[in-house]
Amino acid sequence: MHVYLRTRGAPRKLDYAFLGAAPGSRWWDAYSELTATERPCLLAVTSKGRWQVLISGVPSARTDSVGTLVYYTLVLDGSPCPPGTTETGQDRATVLALASRWLDDITRHPEGRGVLSELLDSLCSSAEVDRLLAARNSELTTERAELTARLATALESLKPVPSTQEIGDPSPVLLTERWIAGRTTPGADAAFLARLSSLLSGEDGQAHLLNLVSSAEDITTLPQKSGPLAVLIEGGMVGDSAMPAEALPKPTPEVVARTPKARWRAAVVPTVLTALILLLVGLALIAGNWT
Length: 291
Fold this sequence. Notes:
Radius of gyration: 26 Å
Helix content: 25-40%
Distance between the termini: 85 Å
């Protein structure tokens, strides 16, 4: 599993950047219409034998030079761990514990400032953050590697938080393949973590905590629409965190994908008819010459 940490420094020139190595791509940008990374959110995608997770909007006690709140972004990626195997079981346990802590922090603390915020603040002081961000990416490689190692160890020490929601009889919708629900809907957090566990075990699909979504209609712009999908509405910016669970329909095949083929067939028909007519005319002329 790879772990990456992004934040900013106090001076205005030290904008948001990764303190150590950076992921190979900014895959989360594809979700910018559905969630703002400066606010609490979570993205999880598994595809083609690889899972990717982003947890962002984790508030720090630090502020920049004009007093603006500073936040953290955690990006993780790794290979799925099928049930019954232990080779990468620790990675799955770490991500599940991290996700459950994050959901608990958002529920219990204003702006999500809880256990995860304290852990990240304890790992990197203001002075260390400023020093790493001010240096070139090729500099301070030892310090960057040490910070990444401390981060990985700290995350592995996290323990999952049992759901504190009064589940009762959870909505059957939460057991379906594709659903959306408010974050505080009874049973929603447990169903979300169960789906995340399936993704980390190798099931292709998505599980997201989004803060710019208010209804099922908003999911139409979701990248990679096919496969299992679980969506929690964060409710801090848009939408209702207590919205009842609602089933999401399976995506329909894109009509556009069939259009080129249909146009090709439409163009072939008159071409073939024209060729046949010319052939018949030619045969008629040849027959006339013989007579």
